[in-house]
Amino acid sequence: MNKTMSEAGWARRMAVVATVSIGAVLGLVGSASASPADAPAADEGTVISFNVGGKEMPAKVTGDVSKFAGRAFGWEDNNFSGDRYIDVGQGECSEDKCEIDGWNGDNEISSVNNDSTCKLRLFANDAWTGRFYDLNKQTSNGNLSSVGFDNEAESLQFIC
After folding, report:
1. CA-CA 20 to 30 A from 106: which of 45, 53, 56, 67?
2. pTM (2 decimals)?
3. Which is more confident, 13 or 132?
4. Can you give the residue ranges of every domain in the chain?
5. pLDDT at residue 48 greater than cutoff 60
6. What is the fold, at CATH topology level, of the domain defined by 66-159?
7. pLDDT value of residue 73
8. Using CA atoms, how far apart are residues 125 and 134, in angstroms rounded to an integer?
C-alpha cells in the first residue's frame, strides 16, 4: 500500500526539521563565549582559536584591535552580554569624568571591561557621587552582583 503525505503533514515535518536545524546552529553559536579578558591580543592576520562547544574553532584576526585600547565598556547583562551601554575612552569626557546617559544604561550595568591604562571608578549616583566600585586598569568584571554593584552605575571616572 502506497501512503502519501498530505500537504499539511509535509509542512509540519519540514517545520520540525527546520526548527531542529536552527536550534542546533544556535546552540553551537550560543555555546561560544569569551569575555574580553579571555580575548588574546594578536596582530592582524594571526590565526587564533576559540573553544566552541568543546571544539577548537580557528579565527583570523582582522581589523585594528588598537581601537579598543584605552576604552571602558559596560553591558546590561552578566558575562559581557546584552546591550552595551558604556563605550567610552580616556580623554573623551571632561576631566575623564563621564555620565552614563539615557534611560537605557543608567542603573543597568551588570558587567564591565576596563581596557584603559587607568583605574575605572563606577559611581552609584550621577555627578560622581555616592557609593563606588573601582576596576583596576586592564581588568574586567563579568558579574557586578558579586561585588554588590549590579545595576548601580550612573557615572564613571578614569583615575590615572
Report:
1. 67
2. 0.59
3. 132
4. 66-159
5. no
6. Gamma-B Crystallin; domain 1 (2.60.20)
7. 95
8. 14
